[in-house]
Amino acid sequence: MGIATSTRPILITGAGKRIGLALARHFLAQQQPVMISYRTRYAAVDELEQAGAICLYGDFSTNDGIEQFADAVKQQCSGLRAILHNASAWLAESSDATPAETLTAMLQIHVHAPYLLNHHLESLLIGHGHASADIIHFTDYIVERGSDKHIAYAASKAALDNLTRSFARKLAPVVKVNAIAPSMIMFNEHDDAQYRQKALNKSLMKIAPGEQEIIALVDYLLSSHYVTGRTHAVDGGRPLR
Q: Residues 116-143: pLDDT tens digits?
C-alpha cells in the first residue's frame, strides 16, 4: 500500500542511482510529483526527467552550493511533501587525503547539507496541516558500532542521526522527522562472490533484500500521522550476530 498522492513534490537528494533512484521511480509510478538533486548526470537522471521528475543540479561540497540548490528548489515549487536526505559518500581514512580533508568531506555531505536544507526549505514543508510533511535522514547501521576504517563517515552519520531528534522537536507537530539506518541492502555490480558471501554472513537473515525494503519503510513513515523522532534500523538483525 502506498502513500496518498500529493501535488507537492517529494524531494530526494542524490537520486541518480541505487536507493535514491529506486525511490524516485516508485513515487513517479504512483503519480506522486518528484524532485531530485544530482551531482553527476547519470543516464538514469535523463530517464527520471523524461518520466516527469524535476531534476536539479546540486553541489553539496560547499555551503554556497547547498544554499544555491535550496534557492533552485524554491523557484520550482511553493510546497514540499517530504525531503528524503539520501545523498551520501563513503570515504575511508586513507593516504589519498589527510584526516582533516576526509572529516570535512563527510561532515559536509552528511551534516551540513541536511542541516542547511532543512532550515532553508522549512517554509515549503509547513503550512499544510498536522503531520502533513516529512523529513527522512538516511543514516547507517554503523552508527551503533563505529568503524576502524571509516571513522569520519561513521561520526558524520551519527551526527545526522542526532539531527533527526532535534528537527523532530523543532518541527512537530506539522513535520515528522525520522531516520532510516540500513546495513547491506543491495550489492554493486562489481562486487565479487567472495565479498558478497562475507557480507551476507554478517546478518541473521543472510540476504541482500533489495530496495523494496527501504521503499516499504518510507511508505510507512510517510503514511503515519504519529511516528516521529525515531531511527528505524533495516539491518537483518546484524547487531545480534
A: 999 999 999 999 999 999 999 999 999 9
Q: Measured between alpha carbons, how far is 82 from 117 in angstroms, rounded to an integer?
A: 12
Q: Identify the active-site residue in 57, 141, 153, 226.
A: 153
How would DSSP label each residue in the chain? Answer: --PPP-SSPEEESS-SSHHHHHHHHHHHHTT--EEEEESS--HHHHHHHHTT-EEEE--TTSHHHHHHHHHHHHHH-S--SEEEE-----PPP-TTS-HHHHHHHHHIIIIIHHHHHHHHTHHHHSSS-TT-EEEEEE--GGGGT--SS-HHHHHHHHHHHHHHHHHHHHHTTTEEEEEEEESS----TT--HHHHHHHHTTSSS-S---HHHHHHHHHHHHH-SS--S-EEEESTTGGG-
Catalytic (active site) residue 153: yes
Give me the pLDDT at residue 3, please: 61
DSSP β-ladder status, 34-38 and 54-57: parallel
